[in-house]
Amino acid sequence: MEFRHEIINFPKKLPIKFFLHRIGNVSRHWHQSLELIVAMKGQVDINVGNAAYRLGAGDLILINSNEVHELHSEDATMVALQIKLELLKEVVVDIKKMYFDCNTANTNDPEAFKNIKRIVAQILQHNINASEFVDLKNASLVYELIYELCAHFSSDEPEAALQPKEGLDRLRRILDYVNSHYGEPISLQEVAKQEFLSVPYLSKYFKKKLGLSFSEYLKDLRLHYAVNDLLNESLTIDKIAAKNGFPNVRSFVTAFSEKYGELPSVWRKKHAEEVSGSIEATKEKSVNYYQDEPHSYHEEISRFIESNLGEPSVYAPRERILRSLTSTIQIDLSGPADRLNHHFKNFIGVSRVKEVLYADVQEALRTAQREIGFKYIKMHGLLDDDLMVYDEDAEGKPLLNFRLIDKAFDFLLSVGLKPLVQFSFMPAKLASDLSKTVFYANMNTSPPKDMEKWNRLVEALTLHLIGRYGTEEVRSWLFCVWNEPSSSNLLFGFKQDETFFSLYQNTYETVKNIDPALPFGGPAAFSTYNKSEDWLFSFLAFSQSSGCLPDFITVHYYDIDLISHDNHLSMDKQLNLSPVTDSFKQFIDRLQDRLREVKLADLPVYMTEWNSTVSHKDLMSDTCFKSSYVIKNIAENYDRLDSFGYWLLTDLHEENRLPRQVFHGGLGLFTFNNIKKPAYHAFCFLNKLGDFLVGRGDGYFVTKQADRYQILLYNYHHYDDIYANGISISISHKERYAHFPNKTNREFRLELSPLAGDFEIKHSVVNRTYGSAYDNALNLGQTEELSRDDIEYLRRISIPKIEKERISCSEGLTIHAVLEPFEIRLIEVSKIYEPGRSRSLQQANSNVEEIK
To answer: Which of 76, 249, 347, 356 has its CA 20 to 30 Å from the CA of residue 679?
Structure first.
């Protein structure tokens, strides 16, 4: 069993850290802090030292300093409070002698724990929708909690539990060393030398402190990490053995079989579904594509607070929105202006080609093309069986039918969209593995069992498209093969990278043999915050050496975090979000740096998918958070890539089963019944920007077109670390803005000069009051099922607020605006011309400047 010392990082100057989790298994560990565990739902098995306890809903236990403990549960919700005793030494006589017997399993008197639960409930109450002064309240409550423990639960520490400080320091050093070098051929002799101890003494010391020998501990530690590696299909059994310090494969298989009762290969196959639907970061880490939403504890917390405070839960004090004054921003309109290409509108995405045939999706596409005007469209499933593309007769000869593809492409071209022709996924009659399917629509993602038949299918479809739409038209399209081949074999990827490389090369050469002028790109490489792009560059190295370098690169980016955090209660399958505000920029920086390194910086890079999350049920996706997120990231990275294909156009898609709630946190710019979300309005604002950039900075982006100016403002706030770690303590269908600490209004004062004359100033505003369909639905008293009248009403009223004013100036124009949290605002400045005077003459100076 693993047994480790945990170092807890406490908030600065605050002697308490609390968090909530739905736990699975937390291995044996110890720390010097107190830890109070309260079960709110389900059952938790806790081992403390040699004693075992089972906690049900409402039970609690206090883990004393230096006590070894572990937790196990199938599905339990608990709150843990960790208390740093060192910060209490000024008010406690001798913290080293503090020991508490506080465990509901040891008594039949539930009243004895009433005050403890009340204090925990207060801590939860004040940290939901926390105010700026919450740490003051937390400090007062933790002192009250210590008083309650000292006054009513003090006890003599059992003799067996006593561990001198010197012994703890030594044990910590030993465990830290072993945990850092377990993958190496370390020995008891080596550790004894590190600690200046004899081997026999260290052997007895280790056995006494941990209850098992050094070799047993080292073997279990190695097995712990090896089990995680078994879920990574790119690692062979021999590589896992070597990586984790086993001297050979046989020793690993023997140790594994003794502990788990089966061979590693059998265990791997049996537990493959634990990462089903996952994507691996360069075949190393995974993210759950099927994650519904951050784990919400809202109901459990509400019940716990209400039952232990004796009144309905009143969360935090009324939220105070503070005004944050900004310095005056000078915009010099006479300086040089950079031309903008507006690459953000080069791509939009629909989940599957089949969905283009749906009336609601067509309506959404018509609206988006009329009001924004995208160039290309990204879609999956061109060759899926529900489009009836491929079949075989009794003799195995291909039967091809492209009628439904024609219907989809005919419509797209009619609204001005050109397809990214993505050859995917695998027709059943061509699939090498009929069981390898993903998502609710069961798309087959196995490689072809017959590469020659695959090539003939690609050839026939390409020739058909040229014959139907003409060579010049099809040359203006883009072609590629597959989706996210860097992912796990359990999703889109294959067991071996070479399998995809072969599929890519065959498809590339088939298309190029028909017409070398057809642009062929690849691959749709998946990237996230803090993830290297090693897989992408291994593919590019292959394509260079094999003479099939793509004409362009396609990438996907999601603002999720694949780096595990040092939280011993974290869940392996939890979906974490990026904890930093500029992760989108960081990704583009490192991608462009590496492309320059390999001398491929001239290749166009199309980002065909991006979003803050992969989850189709992140409740914040329906809110104004997402519109400010869109504006911020595009404004800060304008035109740095050749496209920014927001994923997804509409919530009406078939990756997951469609939820009943209209506002369920889908990734779309539209709800599934075509109500515009705030993020849609963000793209409309971006579409009104001029062709020349004259100023940009934190929260603002200023452009011009002839003698008109466009000022785009945004007041972005990032979610807190709790939500970034995949945990929601206060989000629900009716409250979605709680995980944003210290929300403030933002004041902008922009001085545009030189500028003279009469001007019309038009403000278009999207915030929680104007343009937010979700917030408008709350005003109807519901956010789940809506009537037809409700839907039509929300469509009509969920539009930006527009205000106009006239201003005269002689030397410069001052624009003043105060934005609410998450608000986006487009300010259009248009000159008013004098009656009877030629407008063309008055535009001359601006036009000459733009020609230059």
So the answer is: 356
163, amino acid identity: Q
What pLDDT is attached to residue 595? 97
Look up the pTM and report it.
Answer: 0.76
List C-alpha distances in Å: 261 to 220, 221, 441. Answer: 14, 17, 37
Q: What is the largest CA-CA distance in the chain?
A: 104
- 3-class DSSP state for residue 427? coil
| CA–CA dist 484, 380 (Å, integer) | 11
Determine the Cα–Cα distance for residues 320 and 314; give it in Å rounded to an integer: 16
Residue percentage of the chain with pLDDT more than 70? 83
Tokens of 244: 């984790």
Q: Which burial class, exposed, middle or buried, applies to 167 when counting CB atoms under 10 A from its CB (0-12, 13-18, 19+)?
A: middle
Task: Answer yes or no: is pLDDT of 445 > 60.
Answer: yes
- pLDDT grade, residue 318 (50/70/90)? very low
**To 10 degrees, what angle do helices 451-469 and 497-514 make?**
40
pLDDT at position 281: 34
At residue 211, the pLDDT reads 67
What's the rounded Cα separation, in Å, for the pair 227 and 262?
12
Give the phi and the psi of residue 834 in degrees, each rounded to 5.
Answer: -70, 140
Contact 225, 231 (CB under 8 A): no
> What count of Cα atoms within 13 Å lies in the side-chain half-sphere of residue 109?
7
**Mean predicted confidence (pLDDT) in 166-176:** 69
Higher pLDDT, 276 or 648: 648
Token code pair at residue 555: 């990438």
Q: Are 714 and 699 in contact (CB under 8 A)?
A: yes
Give residues with Cβ within 8 angstroms of 108, minimum separation 6.
Answer: none
Give yes or no for a contact between 443 and 427, defined as CB atoms under 8 angstroms apart: no
What is the torsional sign of CA 306, 310, 311, 313?
negative
Dihedral pair phi/psi, residue 261, rounded to 5°: 75, 15
Exposure of 350 in the CB half-sphere (CA atoms within 13 A) = 30
Distance CA 802, CA 54 (A): 60
* pLDDT tens column, 361-408: 999 999 999 999 999 999 999 999 999 999 999 999 999 999 999 999
> Are the CB atoms for 457 and 470 separated by under 8 Å?
no
Q: Report which of 258, 260, 241 is spatially closest to residue 249, judged by C-alpha positions.
A: 241
Tens-place pLDDT, residues 685-697: 999 999 999 999 9
Q: Say how far apart CA 526 and CA 546 lie, in whole Å.
A: 22
Spatial CB neighbours of 216, under 8 Å, sequence gap ≥ 6: none
Residues 6+ apart with CB under 8 A from 197: 205
Specify whether the CB–CB gap between 550 and 543 falls below 8 A. Answer: yes
